[in-house]
Amino acid sequence: MMSQTHISADYEKSFNVLSLSILSSSQISNRASLVVDHLARNHGSDDTPPLCKLHAKAKVANKLISVVEIAKRDLKTKGQKVYQYSSLASETITLEQNDSNSISKTSSTVSQDPGADDDSFQTMEPRAKIRNVPVMTVVLAARAIPGLKSAIGYDWISEDLLRFG
Q1: CB 35 within 8 Å of CB 140
Q2: Is the dihedral of CA 136, 142, 144, 146 positive or negative?
Q3: What is the pLDDT of residue 123?
Q4: Is it true that domain 4-97+123-164 has CATH number 3.40.50.720?
């Protein structure tokens, strides 16, 4: 499967790419209007056709899907075809432990043996936790992109689908 960096690196030269990250604080209406404006404004420009790349982690994938569906609906009402390419992947992230969660050396326990060494226990460095986080990337374009179709998938909005849906 094609990674997000590969999508932007290969297509930035030949397309006018708008790359958006969807976060938990992102407003759906603002992101959807950015996508619609970008794809509608540049529609008809032959030198660099518009392309929107939206990226979200698993916790906010529902927002990403809402943004994409609202943008597709708005573009359809304007009479513009939209091609959607969806990709699922994973990112490796490193979680740092807080100092409050780490075990530290304390003097709350008093040794019964007066000859016991106070340095008998060693404070351990907190280990960073490494996790794979699912990531969803959706690319919306005003034209078909054969390279993306073969690499990550293909979905075309047909008039019949929206008319009966």
Answers
A1: yes
A2: negative
A3: 77
A4: no
